[in-house]
Structure formats: C-alpha cells, structure tokens
Amino acid sequence: MNIDNRLRSIVIVGGGTAGWMTAAALGRFLTKDGQTRVTLVESDAIGTVGVGESTIPQINIFNRMLGLDENEFVRRTKATFKLAIEFRDWERIGHSYHHPFGPYGLDMEAVSFHAYWLKLHAMGEDDDLGAYSLQAVGARQDRFMRPNGQANSPLGAIAYAFHFDAGLYARFLRDYAEARGVRRREGRITSVQQDGLNGHVTSVILESGEAVEGDLFIDCSGFRGLLIEETLHSGFEDWSNWLLNDRAVAVPCASGGSFSPVTRATARPAGWQWRIPLQHRIGNGYAYSSAHISQDEAAAYLLSHLDGEPLAEPNHIRFKAGRRKKSWNRNVVAIGLAAGFMEPLESQSIHLIQVGISRLLAMLPDRDFRQPDIDRYNRVMAFEYEKIRDFLILHFKATSRNDTPYWDYLREMAIPDYLADKIALFESYGRIFRENEELFNDTSWFSVMVGQGLRPRGYDPMVDVMPVEELRARMADIRTVIARSAEVMPDHRAFIRDHCDAMA
Ligand SMILES: Cc1cc2nc3c(=O)[nH]c(=O)nc-3n(C[C@H](O)[C@H](O)[C@H](O)COP(=O)(O)OP(=O)(O)OC[C@H]3O[C@@H](n4cnc5c(N)ncnc54)[C@H](O)[C@@H]3O)c2cc1C
Description:
Blueprint: E1 9-13, H1 17-29, E2 37-42, H2 59-66, H3 70-76, E3 80-82, E4 84-88, E5 96-100, H4 113-122, H5 134-140, E6 161-163, H6 166-179, E7 183-186, E8 189-194, E9 201-206, E10 211-213, E11 216-219, E12 236-238, E13 247-253, E14 262-268, E15 271-277, E16 282-288, H7 295-303, E17 315-318, E18 322-324, E19 328-329, E20 332-334, E21 340-341, H8 349-362, H9 371-397, H10 405-412, H11 417-429, H12 442-451, H13 468-488, H14 492-499
Helix pairs in contact: 1-6, 1-8, 5-13, 8-9
The protein binds flavin-adenine dinucleotide.
Residues 14-19, 41-43, 46-49, 51-55, 166, 188-189, 220-222, 226, 248, 250, 285, 317, 319, 336-338, 344, 347, 349-350, 353 line the site of flavin-adenine dinucleotide.
C-alpha cells in the first residue's frame, strides 16, 4: 500500500458559481497543510452564465460547512430570504399555490398529516393546504424570521433559503477561497494535454502559453464541458423530450411589486417566467421552448411582464436538458453546468453543485484514481439527477392547461416509469414514499401534486381510526397555531433592514 499518495495539485476549470463553490470547499478542507495545491482557472473574457439566484434550504448546510457568517453573506450578495416557491397559472390560468419549505401540519397516530388533510378535503371541508404550513403563510404575508430555537413551536423549525446575486456570490466565495490558499489564474484555455497511455488530463494550456498542471481536474467550465465532453467525450443523456424548454431570456429590473420571501414561477404560453426579488433589484427570466416561440417574441413577452424598469439588455441563454453520462471520467470530475442541467424550475441546480462537491469530498481519490470509487460517484449522481428530473416533469404533466400547443404536448406526453408509478400510487390512496435519499421529500411531492390538481380516489384507511370530530378539532388547532405563529414573524423587508441590510 502506498503511504501518502495524496493529490498534489487540483485544478478547477471555470470561475462561475460551480467553480468558486468548489474552490471554497476545497480551500476549507484540503489546503491547510500545504500538501495539495488548488488552482482555479477562469477567463473574464468568456464570463459566466450570470444567472442562478434562487436556492433551497440545503444551502445552509454548505454555508455552515464553510463557517460563513450568515448576515455578512446576505449583505455581501445583496440577498433576500426565501420560504417558498409560488406557482401561478400552472394547473390552470388564474390558479396558484405555494410549494413551501418545511412540512405541513404534523403526523398524528403514526399516520401522515397528508392523509388527514386528504380526508377533510374529500369531505369537502378543506381546500387550503397552505394554511398548515408556517412557511406558506409567512410567504403569503411577506413575513420572515429565522427559527428561534423554540421546541414544540413551528417557529423553532422555520426552513428557509436565499435569493442572491450570482455575480456577488461568486466574488464572495472567491475571497473566501483565496484567503485559504486557492490560487486563481486568469486566462482562456486554448488546449488540453492528455497522458498518451491512460488518457488522463495532465495540463490545460492558456492563451499565454502557460501550462497549468494537475493530478485531478474539476471541470466547472459551464455548458460546453471543456474537459469532460470536448476532451474526454463522456456523452450526454438528452431529456428534452420531457423537459421541452431549451432557451431562456433573463433581465434584471428595478424593485417593485411585492417583497415577499418567495420565488415566483408563472406558467406562460410557451414556458414559464421566474421572478426573484433581491435587495437591490429583481431577477427575471422566461424559460421557453424554441419550437413554440421565437427569441424575439420571448424577450418582448418578458419585457412586458416585469414589475419595474429593465436594468440591462436581455441576456439570451441556450441549453439542453440532460446530464453527462459520466460526470467523473478518468481524472476529470464535472460539477455544475458541465455535469448537466435541467431548467431552473425548483431551484435545484446550485444544490446539484453542492451534492457534486460533497460526494467528491466523500470519495476523494489519491493519485491512483480507482474505478470502483469513480463508478460509485457516477451512480450516485445519476440517481440525484434522475429523481429531480421526474419531479420537474410532474409540474408540466399534471396540468389541465390546454390553451397552447406547448401545454397540449406536455399534458399528453409519455412520462418516465418512476414518475408514472409515483402518480399512480398517489391517485390510489394518496400515499407518497421517498425513494432513498432523493432530494424532494414526500412533502414536496404532496405540495406539487395537490397544487397541480391531482387528487386520489381514496385516502389512507388508517385515518378513519380517528373520529371525525376529533380530526376536525385537531386540524383546526394546527391552523390556529400556524396563523398565530405567523403573526409573530416580522415583515421580510424589516427583518433584512434590522439584520443584514446591504443598502444601508
Ligand atoms: C436560465 C438559467 C437560470 C438559472 N436559475 C437558477 C436558479 O434560480 N437556481 C439555481 O440553483 N440554479 C439556477 N441556474 C443554474 C446556475 O446558474 C448554475 O448552476 C450555476 O451558475 C453554475 O454555473 P457554472 O459555474 O457551472 O457555469 P458558468 O457560470 O457558465 O461558468 C463557467 C466558467 O468557466 C469558464 N470557462 C469556460 N471556458 C473556458 C476556457 N476556455 N478558459 C477559461 N475559462 C473558461 C468561464 O469563464 C466561467 O468562469 C440557472 C441556469 C440558467 C441557465
């Protein structure tokens, strides 16, 4: 056995969100003793994708891992807080629902809360699922606070995430990483050198002629996948038959309208529009299918559906839904857009960066690069992407919209077996089970299934053990506790002003 066969040099290619998140994590854990050098190469001339501003609560795990001060992080990235996603016009035009973070109500007598709600709903007595979620009620009322540590109160377990400025986030993490020894090289990579025997990447060559050598290369070069695809030809699994949107147009606008702690996703004739409120502006975009609307029409549509004056020219972005068949190939690991992308629905992409980093740290190789570890990494990442994919497809499939050919296609399309099984199980007795560690748990699936108009034929018979009067009383109690708890939460803007105002 080789003793201390550690990696001597890790090269991160790309300085977008993926590159700097990876650099920050490696800086935190690997560079301490000076044995492993970490270098990040990026090109200002090429730039970053420049979007990606809405997150999910798992980002708090990443921030804690780095030991960030949250108020400083919010100030530096001009961030706001997020309690939910609001879906408008997805099930039908004029209908809306929240997909909140955190659970609904509470499980009782070993039966899930969802089952009790479905019974009340079947009896025609309850339609407002959101009233059982503190996050949904807080979102509706533009309120926010962090969990206050109180046990046995929903206020003690508020789940939240952030909206932040992507450029400022990368800059913030760059400062963090450079302070921990990560070196940055500016320059466009013009060619890649490989070992003639095993095909491993040995160095990347910059326009200046300088070679940056490494043992492990992390490809964070964005959609093109400079190393993972253009060099190693790892292959791409195309999911665009289910996820039709292949373009986006993004434009920031001046603040206006509500300042709720919510990402809004509004279904549109040929796609959907996002609205992400930051402290200094609102991020907006229209993700659309180029087969159903032209670039100019999409831009015009977006510009006529903003809450404030546009602050920049529209940024047009092309993409294809899918993932790299191998996100780890030889000595290259792709993270971020280089590894795959599904449209920004449900804000999962930055999370997938985080998963890629944490799985890589869990399976960090030495200079031997053993295949069982590589295979395991690829299996785990494939599982993560596929389960998220199916959750996203649910939003397009479960709809009664029939106003455009785009929605007609989506409503009628064949779906992956996993999703079909999940829907069939729900339509039976309303049951949902989380598959291993899939990202979206049963609360998320329940929220979106109910929000998109799916209803089961029956409910879990275990629910009938509780007398109806007791059920009504307990459900009313839960609603009251949630409503009273929400009253304690301050206004979202006031909370930011008091704790982490970037504009002061
Ligand atoms: C329209 C849209 C909306 C999105 N919204 C969200 C969201 O709300 N929430 C979310 O979680 N995610 C979102 N995402 C995803 C998110 O933007 C990305 O996951 C994130 O920005 C990571 O991008 P990246 O770092 O992989 O790539 P990029 O930002 O493209 O960075 C690539 C880097 O590689 C460098 N590079 C490339 N080629 C070379 C070369 N030859 N030489 C040197 N350097 C090179 C570039 O300079 C750049 O630094 C969205 C994505 C899109 C497309």
